[in-house]
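Dear colleague,

Thank you for sharing your sequence with our group. We've completed the structure prediction you requested, and as agreed, I am returning the results in plain text so they can be pasted directly into your records. Please verify that the sequence below matches your submission; if there's any discrepancy, let me know and we will rerun it promptly.
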Amino acid sequence: MSVRQRPRPRSQADFTWQFTDLVLPNPGITTPGHWPAPDDARRPRAAYTLAAVGRARAPADRAGAS
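Please find the predicted structure tokens below.
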């Protein structure tokens, strides 16, 4: 089994050369005004409820159990 070499850090000039000619999307799509409206149509529910797990005992029940 061979160990891969660590990546070498790039110089500022190499980094600039690599990313200079990228065609980036319109910056307007990243503003909150272009985000979709939040989905308020449904209410998220917990994966389980207290009724499914069991009832919490009252403090008086816990005192008598000791």
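Summary note from our side: Residues 12-19 form the longest helix (8 residues).

Kind regards,
the structure core
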